[in-house]
Write a structure and sequence with these properties.
The chain is of the alpha/beta class and about 300 residues long. The protein has two domains: about 200 residues, no CATH class; about 55 residues, no CATH class. It contains three helices and 23 strands. The strands form four sheets. Strands 4-1-19-16-13-11-9-7 form an eight-stranded parallel sheet. The longest helix is centred in the N-terminal third of the chain and has 34 residues. It is globular and about 40 Å long.
Length: about 300
């Protein structure tokens, strides 16, 4: 029986009425918490959506002092700024994009944009959801998450739409061994961002997302074995051994040309032009010649200046 508090000034209320009042108060409490959580996620995601990588988005790998690649694969451009005595070392790596010194001028501006993006990421820390541990068996919706420096392992699933954005702010070093990140529901690796306050060290992992290691002293990235879908950006050094990196330019399969900071002209990406006109911004001189094109005569290929 529920106690019935009543006296001459306050008549007794039916027990069912009192139970209803208590239930309403309880539901209101949990409903308010739910609204707070929804607002937290929505506000954090909306705030991050305004941040851009700028010119840093043109690089698959961008280092500060140097980039060293040994027996690996890089699909995309490599840049180093401000560099060092030996800014770039390639020992048995297959690289599909441009490398220093061809990218030196572009890397200077890209570095500025990378560090600005890193600062913008961390400006969202007051809206983040705390998520301790190694992330194994977690299934996360888009949002801003604050992580500790516990080594990551197991499988992390990121479930969301193609325009969903995941931001992971790591308080300390980002380390992972045999760590597998899986995208689900249409989510894109290039909408995932990892920003540690120290170094990033990944070993034999299938990693998704771009790493922004912006610490001026400890901001290095070391990849040993495994695969990486996204961009690697370090304020200090990038060291790859037996690892493969597929940059966002390659993952996006974008057939429109971008401004080429490397040549101060146009970045002419290969245009898969078959019969009929190809994308107007592309250079037929860099077309996929397995298919014919009627945009240009054969003797004019490679000399188009179309915008």
């Amino acid at each position: 029986m529920m106690p019935r508090y009543c006296n001459e000034a306050m008549p007794c209320l039916p027990e069912t009425f009192l139970k209803g009042i208590i239930m309403m108060n309880t539901l209101q409490k949990y409903f308010s918490k739910g609204l707070l959580a929804v607002a937290l996620f929505a506000g954090a995601s909306a705030a991050w959506a305004q941040v851009s990588l700028g010119d840093a988005a043109d690089f698959a790998v961008l280092g500060g002092s140097n980039v060293t690649c040994t027996a690996g694969v890089i699909a995309g451009d490599v840049g180093v700024a401000p560099g060092s005595a030996v800014p770039f070392t390639n020992t048995g790596c297959t690289i599909t994009g441009l490398t220093p010194p061809a990218t030196d001028a572009a890397a200077v501006g890209a570095r500025v944009d990378f560090l600005n993006a890193y600062a913008s990421l961390w400006s969202q820390s007051n809206t983040c959801v705390q998520l301790p541990g190694n992330l194994a068996d977690q299934n996360l919706a888009p949002g801003v998450y604050c992580l500790d420096a516990v080594a990551k392992a197991g499988t992390l699933t990121l479930t969301g739409a193609a325009d969903g954005v995941w931001v992971f702010l790591v308080n300390g070093a980002l380390t992972a061994t045999d760590f597998n990140v899986v995208m689900a529901g249409g989510g894109e690796p290039c909408n995932v961002y990892w920003a540690p306050t120290a170094a990033a060290t990944l070993t034999t992992s299938a990693f998704k997302g771009s790493i922004l290691a912006g610490n001026p002293i400890g901001g290095s990235v070391t990849l040993t074995g495994g695969s990486f879908a996204g961009q690697v950006m370090a304020n200090v050094a990038v060291t790859m051994t037996g690892a493969s990196v597929i940059g966002c330019d390659t993952l996006s399969n974008d057939t429109t040309c971008k401004k080429d900071k490397h040549h101060h002209d146009k970045k002419h990406k290969k245009c898969n032009q078959g019969v009929g006109n190809g994308p107007e911004a592309c250079d037929p001189g860099h077309s996929n010649h397995h298919h014919s094109s009627n945009d240009e005569d054969d003797d004019k290929r490679g000399h188009s200046k179309r915008k």
